[in-house]
Amino acid sequence: MIETLINLDLAPFLLSFKLAGLTTLILFILSLPLAWYLSQSKSKAKPFLEAITALPIVLPPSVLGFYILIVFTEVDLNFSFVGLVIASCFYSLPFMVQPLQGGFETLNKNMLEASYISGKNQWVTLLKVAVPNSKPALLTALIITFAHTVGEFGVVLMIGGSIPNETKVASIAIYEMVEIMDYTTAHIYSGIMVLISFLVLLSVYIFNHTQKKIGGFH
Asked: Residue 26 has what pLDDT?
Protein backbone atom coordinates (compact mmCIF):
# COMPACT_ATOMS: atom_id res chain seq x y z
CA MET A 1 0.00 0.00 0.00
CA ILE A 2 2.78 2.46 0.96
CA GLU A 3 4.70 1.68 -2.22
CA THR A 4 1.54 2.17 -4.27
CA LEU A 5 0.96 5.57 -2.68
CA ILE A 6 4.53 6.64 -3.38
CA ASN A 7 4.31 5.59 -7.04
CA LEU A 8 0.75 6.83 -7.53
CA ASP A 9 0.19 8.50 -10.89
CA LEU A 10 -1.61 11.78 -10.21
CA ALA A 11 -1.80 12.80 -13.86
CA PRO A 12 -5.41 11.54 -14.27
CA PHE A 13 -6.53 13.71 -11.35
CA LEU A 14 -4.71 16.78 -12.65
CA LEU A 15 -6.32 16.22 -16.05
CA SER A 16 -9.74 15.79 -14.40
CA PHE A 17 -9.33 19.09 -12.54
CA LYS A 18 -8.17 20.84 -15.70
CA LEU A 19 -11.18 19.49 -17.61
CA ALA A 20 -13.59 20.39 -14.80
CA GLY A 21 -12.13 23.88 -14.41
CA LEU A 22 -12.40 24.75 -18.10
CA THR A 23 -15.85 23.21 -18.40
CA THR A 24 -17.11 25.13 -15.37
CA LEU A 25 -15.70 28.43 -16.64
CA ILE A 26 -17.17 28.00 -20.13
CA LEU A 27 -20.54 26.89 -18.82
CA PHE A 28 -20.72 29.79 -16.37
CA ILE A 29 -20.20 32.29 -19.19
CA LEU A 30 -22.74 30.57 -21.45
CA SER A 31 -25.30 29.67 -18.78
CA LEU A 32 -25.53 33.03 -17.03
CA PRO A 33 -27.59 34.73 -19.77
CA LEU A 34 -29.52 31.53 -20.49
CA ALA A 35 -30.50 31.03 -16.85
CA TRP A 36 -31.42 34.70 -16.57
CA TYR A 37 -33.63 34.47 -19.65
CA LEU A 38 -35.35 31.32 -18.38
CA SER A 39 -35.95 32.87 -14.97
CA GLN A 40 -37.54 36.02 -16.40
CA SER A 41 -39.23 34.73 -19.53
CA LYS A 42 -42.97 34.12 -19.86
CA SER A 43 -42.62 32.80 -23.40
CA LYS A 44 -44.51 29.70 -24.48
CA ALA A 45 -41.17 28.32 -25.65
CA LYS A 46 -39.78 28.36 -22.10
CA PRO A 47 -40.82 24.77 -21.18
CA PHE A 48 -39.26 23.55 -24.42
CA LEU A 49 -35.96 25.29 -23.65
CA GLU A 50 -36.01 24.02 -20.07
CA ALA A 51 -36.58 20.46 -21.29
CA ILE A 52 -33.70 20.71 -23.79
CA THR A 53 -31.42 22.13 -21.09
CA ALA A 54 -32.31 19.38 -18.59
CA LEU A 55 -32.09 16.54 -21.12
CA PRO A 56 -28.55 15.40 -20.11
CA ILE A 57 -29.84 14.63 -16.60
CA VAL A 58 -32.19 11.88 -17.80
CA LEU A 59 -30.42 10.86 -20.99
CA PRO A 60 -28.07 7.84 -20.62
CA PRO A 61 -24.44 9.01 -20.99
CA SER A 62 -23.91 6.36 -23.65
CA VAL A 63 -26.69 7.86 -25.80
CA LEU A 64 -25.41 11.40 -25.42
CA GLY A 65 -21.84 10.21 -25.98
CA PHE A 66 -22.85 8.32 -29.11
CA TYR A 67 -24.41 11.34 -30.81
CA ILE A 68 -21.54 13.60 -29.81
CA LEU A 69 -19.17 10.96 -31.15
CA ILE A 70 -20.96 11.00 -34.51
CA VAL A 71 -20.78 14.79 -34.74
CA PHE A 72 -17.14 14.93 -33.61
CA THR A 73 -16.16 12.35 -36.23
CA GLU A 74 -17.02 14.93 -38.89
CA VAL A 75 -14.79 17.61 -37.34
CA ASP A 76 -12.00 15.36 -36.05
CA LEU A 77 -12.47 16.11 -32.34
CA ASN A 78 -12.68 12.54 -31.05
CA PHE A 79 -9.95 11.36 -28.67
CA SER A 80 -8.76 14.89 -27.94
CA PHE A 81 -8.84 17.10 -24.86
CA VAL A 82 -10.75 19.79 -26.76
CA GLY A 83 -13.38 17.20 -27.62
CA LEU A 84 -13.63 16.25 -23.95
CA VAL A 85 -14.21 19.87 -22.95
CA ILE A 86 -16.98 20.36 -25.51
CA ALA A 87 -18.65 17.05 -24.61
CA SER A 88 -18.42 17.89 -20.90
CA CYS A 89 -20.12 21.23 -21.52
CA PHE A 90 -23.09 19.42 -23.05
CA TYR A 91 -23.18 16.82 -20.28
CA SER A 92 -22.87 19.25 -17.36
CA LEU A 93 -25.06 22.05 -18.76
CA PRO A 94 -28.11 21.47 -16.51
CA PHE A 95 -25.95 21.40 -13.38
CA MET A 96 -24.95 24.98 -14.09
CA VAL A 97 -28.20 26.35 -15.52
CA GLN A 98 -30.72 25.00 -13.00
CA PRO A 99 -29.14 26.37 -9.78
CA LEU A 100 -28.61 29.74 -11.45
CA GLN A 101 -32.17 29.83 -12.74
CA GLY A 102 -33.52 28.86 -9.32
CA GLY A 103 -31.48 31.58 -7.66
CA PHE A 104 -32.65 34.25 -10.08
CA GLU A 105 -36.28 33.20 -9.68
CA THR A 106 -36.15 33.77 -5.92
CA LEU A 107 -34.87 37.34 -6.22
CA ASN A 108 -37.05 40.16 -4.91
CA LYS A 109 -39.11 41.35 -7.90
CA ASN A 110 -39.32 44.88 -6.49
CA MET A 111 -35.52 45.07 -6.51
CA LEU A 112 -35.41 44.11 -10.18
CA GLU A 113 -38.20 46.51 -11.10
CA ALA A 114 -36.37 49.33 -9.30
CA SER A 115 -33.34 48.60 -11.42
CA TYR A 116 -35.36 48.84 -14.64
CA ILE A 117 -37.13 52.02 -13.48
CA SER A 118 -33.76 53.64 -12.80
CA GLY A 119 -32.82 53.10 -16.44
CA LYS A 120 -30.71 49.94 -16.23
CA ASN A 121 -31.16 47.41 -19.03
CA GLN A 122 -31.38 43.61 -18.75
CA TRP A 123 -27.61 43.05 -18.91
CA VAL A 124 -26.77 45.68 -16.31
CA THR A 125 -29.53 44.40 -14.03
CA LEU A 126 -28.20 40.86 -14.39
CA LEU A 127 -24.58 41.76 -13.64
CA LYS A 128 -25.08 44.55 -11.10
CA VAL A 129 -28.20 43.40 -9.25
CA ALA A 130 -29.06 39.74 -9.88
CA VAL A 131 -25.59 38.19 -9.69
CA PRO A 132 -24.44 39.94 -6.47
CA ASN A 133 -27.70 38.92 -4.76
CA SER A 134 -27.55 35.27 -5.83
CA LYS A 135 -24.28 34.18 -4.22
CA PRO A 136 -25.54 30.85 -2.78
CA ALA A 137 -26.98 29.85 -6.16
CA LEU A 138 -23.79 30.92 -7.94
CA LEU A 139 -21.56 28.94 -5.62
CA THR A 140 -23.81 25.88 -5.83
CA ALA A 141 -23.81 26.02 -9.63
CA LEU A 142 -20.04 26.40 -9.87
CA ILE A 143 -19.14 23.70 -7.37
CA ILE A 144 -21.73 21.13 -8.45
CA THR A 145 -20.76 21.59 -12.11
CA PHE A 146 -17.08 21.18 -11.25
CA ALA A 147 -17.72 18.07 -9.15
CA HIS A 148 -20.04 16.54 -11.74
CA THR A 149 -17.43 17.01 -14.45
CA VAL A 150 -14.69 15.48 -12.32
CA GLY A 151 -16.86 12.39 -11.86
CA GLU A 152 -17.82 11.94 -15.52
CA PHE A 153 -17.27 8.49 -17.00
CA GLY A 154 -19.55 7.32 -19.81
CA VAL A 155 -19.31 10.38 -22.03
CA VAL A 156 -15.56 10.88 -21.56
CA LEU A 157 -14.89 7.20 -22.23
CA MET A 158 -16.76 7.30 -25.54
CA ILE A 159 -15.36 10.63 -26.69
CA GLY A 160 -11.83 10.57 -25.29
CA GLY A 161 -10.89 6.97 -24.69
CA SER A 162 -7.81 6.61 -22.50
CA ILE A 163 -4.84 8.54 -23.85
CA PRO A 164 -2.34 9.32 -21.04
CA ASN A 165 -2.00 13.06 -20.31
CA GLU A 166 -4.60 13.81 -23.00
CA THR A 167 -7.93 12.12 -22.23
CA LYS A 168 -7.23 9.67 -19.39
CA VAL A 169 -9.09 11.29 -16.50
CA ALA A 170 -9.49 9.88 -12.97
CA SER A 171 -12.74 7.99 -13.60
CA ILE A 172 -11.18 6.23 -16.60
CA ALA A 173 -8.07 5.38 -14.58
CA ILE A 174 -10.23 3.71 -11.90
CA TYR A 175 -12.05 1.69 -14.55
CA GLU A 176 -8.74 0.49 -16.00
CA MET A 177 -7.39 -0.48 -12.57
CA VAL A 178 -10.49 -2.61 -11.97
CA GLU A 179 -10.14 -4.20 -15.40
CA ILE A 180 -6.60 -5.38 -14.64
CA MET A 181 -7.68 -6.30 -11.08
CA ASP A 182 -5.34 -3.78 -9.45
CA TYR A 183 -7.77 -3.23 -6.61
CA THR A 184 -5.23 -1.50 -4.37
CA THR A 185 -4.73 1.38 -6.78
CA ALA A 186 -8.46 1.40 -7.59
CA HIS A 187 -9.21 1.74 -3.87
CA ILE A 188 -6.82 4.68 -3.55
CA TYR A 189 -8.15 6.44 -6.65
CA SER A 190 -11.75 5.83 -5.54
CA GLY A 191 -11.00 7.01 -2.01
CA ILE A 192 -9.58 10.26 -3.36
CA MET A 193 -12.70 10.76 -5.48
CA VAL A 194 -14.99 10.10 -2.50
CA LEU A 195 -13.03 12.58 -0.38
CA ILE A 196 -13.13 15.25 -3.08
CA SER A 197 -16.88 14.77 -3.61
CA PHE A 198 -17.59 14.95 0.12
CA LEU A 199 -15.51 18.10 0.61
CA VAL A 200 -17.20 19.75 -2.36
CA LEU A 201 -20.70 19.04 -1.04
CA LEU A 202 -19.71 19.99 2.51
CA SER A 203 -18.42 23.36 1.33
CA VAL A 204 -21.69 24.06 -0.48
CA TYR A 205 -23.84 23.18 2.53
CA ILE A 206 -21.67 25.15 4.96
CA PHE A 207 -21.77 28.22 2.73
CA ASN A 208 -25.54 28.01 2.20
CA HIS A 209 -26.23 27.54 5.92
CA THR A 210 -23.97 30.50 6.69
CA GLN A 211 -25.83 32.67 4.19
CA LYS A 212 -29.19 31.67 5.70
CA LYS A 213 -27.98 32.62 9.18
CA ILE A 214 -26.73 35.97 7.92
CA GLY A 215 -30.04 36.57 6.15
CA GLY A 216 -31.99 35.56 9.23
CA PHE A 217 -29.88 37.85 11.42
CA HIS A 218 -30.62 40.81 9.24
From this structure: 97
